Amino acid sequence: MGLVYKKFFGLRANPFSVSPDPRYLFLTRHAEEALACLMYGVESRKGFVLLTGEVGTGKTTLINKLLELLRPQQVATAFIFNPNLTVPQFLDYMMTDFGIPCESKSKSQILIRFYDWLLAHHRAGGNAVLIVDEAQNLSEELLEEIRLFTNVETSEQKLLQIVLSGQPELEQKIKQPQLRQLRQRVAVRARTYPLSAAETKIYVGQRLRIAGSNGEQIFDPESLEAIWRHSNGIPRVVNQICEHCLVSAFVDQQREVKVSMVDTVARDLDLDDGNSSPLMPPPASVAPDSKPGMIEMLKTSTQLTERLRDSESESPKKEKL
Ligand SMILES: Nc1ncnc2c1ncn2[C@@H]1O[C@H](COP(=O)(O)OP(=O)(O)O)[C@@H](O)[C@H]1O
Ligand SMILES: [Mg+2]
To answer: What is the Cα Rg of the chain in Å?
Structure first.
């Protein structure tokens, strides 16, 4: 859709696209903690990392940021975003994404090739990460295959790090007795949470600024409060409401969005009446068995902040995704 309202509001890009674009990443305390956990899990080479959170709370966005941070390092990555695959399809996709040439279609041959590659890559000082998004959809068979990957290890380190990202059902799924072995290997747990009312205000402002707004007020404070109530702080829903409000305001040739408009948009979008209070998030945590690594994790987190700063100053703003 051509964004007719862009010019009207002085914007260069669509500020409220629902694509998981890491350039728009807003690091709430929780998001920063989750990203630090992911980085720590990968860098400490502990094997399994779990990222869970409700739909639309920023998991895929964080993964894209993680990929961006890993790119300049010697970390090979494979990213599977739709795991509704059979085992052969999964292996094929993974090998291709890692860039490992393999002619054979036989599972055992593929695995031998994969393990040889992991070892060679490790010896050359590299790390490797397999990321599976929407992992709540993984079949039990695939989860078991993936678990077996973590058997490839030296005495101290896993040669392959695995990030499983998914909706909270993922936690339930791996609680099943037959997946006990997998659950025991989860070294780090990261979570995403809805935004608080205060965060929602900053979030909307930041997205507008990144999209080129000159800071002129578009959403008044009450309308922002209403956006938070109707969305329960879920960023994806915040984006939907905001985008619809900009269209409505443009149609009415109004430069400011008022609370009545937010309420109308929320009703049209069939959202609740905004009376249910969003769940307050508990602090993000690391699995108990990784407690001794807490200091390292904080170090990683500091490095992370520095790296984020660097990546911000280095990367020129691209016009398109
Ligand atoms: N921390 C955040 N900063 C910026 N945008 C976010 C953040 N969290 C979520 N979003 C936005 O919300 C929408 C949904 O995020 P997404 O990563 O797809 O969620 P999930 O994968 O958890 O369903 C996307 O448009 C994304 O850009
Ligand atoms: Mg997602």
So the answer is: 21
| pLDDT surpasses 70 at 318 | no
Ligand 1 pocket test, pick from 35, 61, 196 with the greatest ligand atom count within 8 Å of Cβ, gives 61
51 lies in which domain range?
29-192
Q: Which residues of 127-145 are buried (b: 16+ CB within 10 A; e: fewer)?
A: bbbbbbbbbbbbeeebbeb
Which residue type occupies 70? L
Lining ligand 1 with CB less than 6 A are 18-21, 24-26, 31, 53, 55-61, 192, 235-236, 239
* Residue 61 and residue 184 share a domain: yes
Which backbone phi and psi does 188 adopt, to 5 degrees? Answer: -135, 135
Whole-number Å distance, alpha carbon 56 to ligand 2 midpoint, is 7
Looking at residue 310, its pLDDT comes to: 56
Which of the ligands is closest to the CA of residue 239? 1
Q: Is 213 left (phi over 0), alpha (psi -120 to 50) or beta?
A: beta
Which of 149, 174, 192 is where one domain is finished? 192
- The ligand minimizing its distance to the Cα of 242 is 1
CA-closest residue to ligand 1 atom 12:
236
26 CA: nearest ligand 1 atom = 3
Asked whether the predicted pLDDT for residue 160 surpasses 90, the reply is: yes
Query: What pTM was estimated for this model as a whole?
Result: 0.86
Token pair of 214 as six digits = 């000159």
**What is the pLDDT of the chain when averaged over all its residues?**
87
Q: Does some domain include residue 253?
A: yes
- Check if the beta carbon of residue 235 is closer than 8 Å to that of residue 200: no
178 C-alpha to ligand 1 centroid (Å): 32
